[in-house]
Amino acid sequence: PTHTRPKSTATVRARRSRAAEKMSAMSNMPKVTNKQPAPMQITAEQILREARERQEDEPYTAPAQKVMDPEELAVYRMKERKQYEDRLRMNRNAMGAWIKYAAFEEAQRDFERARSVYERAIDVDHRNSALWLKYAEMEMRNRHINAARNVWDRAVTLMPRMDQFWFKYIYMEEMLGNVAGARALFDRWTEWEPEDHAWTSFVRLELRANQPDRARAVFQRYVACHNLPRAWVKWAKFEEKQGQTANSRAVFEAAMQEMDERDHGEAFFLAFAQFEERAKEAERARAIYKYALEALPRSQALDLHKKYVQFEKQHGDRRGIENVVVTRKRFAYEEAVKADPHTYDVWFDYARLEESAIEAEADYHRVRDVYERAVANVPPAADKRLWRRYIYLWLKYALFEELTALDAERAAAVLAEARRVVPHEHFTFAKLWVHAAHLEVRQKRLDAARKLLGQAIGRCPKDKLFKEYVQLELQLGDVERCRKLYGRYLEWSPSNCAAWAAYADLEASLGEASRSRAIFELAVGQEQLDMPESLWKAYLDFEIGASEWDKARALYRRLLARTRHVKVWLSFATMEVEAGGEGEGEAARERAAAVYAEAEASFRESGQKDERVLVLEAWRDMLARGGSEAALASVEAKMPKRVKKRRPVLGEEGEAAGWEEYYDYIFAEEEAAAPSLKILDMARKWKKQKVEGDS
Q1: What is the value of pTM for the model shown?
Q2: Dihedral in degrees, nearest 10, Cα atoms 361, 362, 367, 368
Q3: pLDDT at residue 2 above 50?
Q4: What does the DSSP assignment read for 234-293?
Q5: How confident is the model at residue 413 (pLDDT cuts 50, 70, 90)?
Q6: Which of 489, 462, 304 is nearest to 384 (CA)?
């Protein structure tokens, strides 16, 4: 068991006295009675600023240590060396400590010890470039030339890819006037195939040594090592600075042959062309620009285009500038069609550009090449929507051959190839057949044109083909062929009202009224028609135009037996008014009034109020223009009242969706049948009078 030593009485008394003093001091402290904030507040920022201002301006510097005698110097050196050695024992790989140690020995002018430190450091890490640089710079700084050469030689041997070693080594030799040694070092360096700056430095060395032939030999080795545009361009610029224009041009030409085609870039061609410009060879420069623009894609020759435009503005004429613009647009179109060859609008613009750039017959091949490439992009599916724009490429191609190239045979061949490409079993394009037929007509080959249209009608009949064929025969004056064509047309499409009407109009224009009437009778007797109203209108117009009023009335009655549309009644009444000649105006109005009365009675029975109102309004207008007052008053009495009503609106599922207002017509017979309407009418009038009286 451990025993605690008892505390002395003096110690206890001392502690008690200190506690009593502390308590008395706390009791004597003034009590804070005013707890309001002080009028001037001190912030942490102000405290820090004042502390900063109170600091001494000059930092603390250790006192300089002065050595007075050799024994004291020896002690100082021993102390510093011991510190460095201790530090290196703790961290052997601290290259900074090695470099400081060597710098200390150099400052003491003890170069053997400094070399020993550097050698020890190199044994630790011989790949540290900073260590070799400090080592060699120490030898150079102290004019130990052979020792520096030894260090640099060891450094470039161990690390030949460290360009800084070579540069400093060569610079040292050149500063010593040893140009041959510097040249030998460059030869050693270039065996490792360094980057461009090594070769250009070698060239500058030879130029400083006034050896242009040696510099030219260096460039030959340079382009053999780096067969790239930048190397050839540097060589060409060197020759140009030497005043050797022919040699510079030969360098560019050799580059064109020696380099791969993929290395023929924008920068190379631009340098070549600008060289020719400086040499006052405008034609050579223009040829280079044109060749480059044709060889390079648009995306890789943007700057080249700009330079070419500037060149033409300086050295070319209006024609040359236009050619530049055309060339730039041509490249833009090439990029667009390469991105999406099925964008036919781009092909149209491209072909239009080439056609506008035609200057001689030799330029036709460019337009043909564009059209051939365009039509080679056949739509991927047998969908007529995809073929609509494509067909116009063939038509434009044929028009170019016929109108611009004046080669009708080639145009006919183009259209024949277009007809071969189109899948006629799925769909056809009448414009192809019609255009080919018109071409044959212009070449005075009527039999070929008829054969083409006949083949089209037999293979893929269409309304447009029949119409164009009939129009062609009409222009040629062959009526019998027109009748045969209309016969085949109506056999193929007996429900086509337009075809029946056109056939009847043809016979009417020939003065064959009976044939025209027979055609109309056949037409209206068809069981199915696409637009019967237009056919009946054409039949009625034919009879009215021939002043066959009785036949027209009979035709209206036949039409009313089929349909009792309000327009038929109105047209019937209008015809009766027009049928009245001189002195028959009153009789014509009576006949028209009879038609109006019959129509009004028909719609009254069927309950069609809107149509009945239309009939009454037309009847009233006719009487207002020339009828009697009694008849006009009779019709006015039949006119209904227009009232606003409300009705429920139902939704899609039959639920109530609100109310809507609409206008309804109340006729006289309806008012008599419903007396409550009169009461409502009287109430409405009373309210109106009251509102007017109050106002």
Answers
A1: 0.56
A2: 100
A3: no
A4: HHHHHHHHTT-HHHHHHHHHHHHHHS-GGG--HHHHHHHHHHHHHTT-HHHHHHHHHHHH
A5: very high
A6: 462
